[in-house]
Design goal:
- Helix content is 51%, strand content 6%.
- It is mainly alpha-helical.
- The termini are far apart.
């Protein structure tokens, strides 16, 4: 009902279930219980951002319980203030992947699933969650594009164009997918054939990042190699190649408030954007 993104809802559910497995009656939880629970999480050697995400989920949960008059108060805000203060010194900037390093990352991907995922992220600027919800029918090979669904109230899409490299890799991937798919999702799990787990795209990046010395587990954002780094990579590469900033926003599907930014660019001709995209998108294979 709050129109949160699917991956946000999934994170909330996972975090709250974990908490309830330790404390089945949340309205009887004490400050000492929360301290004990924090110790449980600390023993899992989680990154600071992941640690905080647990309590963001719990805060949303208790806000709901308070609103529904199931619990008298939300104990999370004072606990977070005491034990999880904001640290402004941590960088909010994502790691910038150099072009040569991007090529190494893509070429080292031995499995066609990993290669297709990361090539597509690097060449389109798709968000991880946008990629994971793609359906097989969203891939329109004859038009060399993917119709990326837009979240929110509009039942619409934004065009994600494919160049020759992306097309070749996607055709290879589809041959593999035909054998394993047990759902309509475009990218499917090798083990179940269903939707990929949200953490799957990051596993390969962490592995290759450690090998290349460009990933620090638990480090600041600019020290970690994550799927969102590809969105920064795509934006940086096409901007440096001279792409019109208006077209970059159109391709990224940027959000301004509750509106999709590209809805304000109704005069943009998608075919002109496609031509400029093909001129600016980097070669990675």
């Amino acid at each position: 009902m709050r129109q949160l993104r699917k991956h946000t809802i999934e994170n909330y559910i996972s975090d709250i279930k974990h908490f309830l497995s330790h404390y089945p009656d949340p309205c009887r939880v004490t400050s000492q219980d929360l301290e004990d629970y924090l110790q449980v999480l600390l023993r899992k050697d989680l990154s600071p951002s992941t640690l905080k995400s647990y309590f963001i989920s719990l805060n949303a949960f208790y806000e709901m319980l308070e609103y529904k008059k199931k619990c008298k108060r939300n104990p999370i805000p004072p606990f977070r203030k005491r034990y999880l203060p904001r640290r402004t010194a941590r960088s909010e900037k994502r790691q910038e992947i150099p072009l040569d390093t991007a090529r190494v990352i893509i070429r080292r991907a031995g499995h066609v699933l990993d290669r297709s995922i990361h090539l597509l992220l690097a060449k389109t600027g798709l968000r991880r969650e946008e990629l994971l919800i793609l359906q097989a029918g969203d891939l329109v090979l004859e038009d060399w594009m993917i119709k990326a669904p837009l979240t929110g109230k509009r039942l619409d899409f934004r065009p994600v164009f494919l160049d020759d490299e992306a097309m070749v890799v996607m055709l290879d991937y589809l041959d593999w997918r035909d054998e394993y798919a047990a759902s309509d999702y475009l990218f499917v799990s090798p083990s179940t054939g269903g939707q990929l787990h949200k953490d799957y795209p990051g596993k390969y990046l962490r592995k290759v990042g450690m090998e290349l010395g460009i990933h620090v587990p638990g480090g600041d954002l600019d020290e970690r190699l994550t799927p969102h780094c590809w969105r920064w990579f795509f934006t940086t590469q096409v901007f440096r190649s001279g792409m019109n900033e208006q077209y970059i926003k159109y391709l990224r599907g940027d959000v301004l408030g509750t509106r999709q930014a590209w809805e304000g660019y109704l005069s943009v001709d998608p075919e002109i954007v496609r031509m400029e995209y093909l001129e600016c998108v980097p070669k990675l294979l």
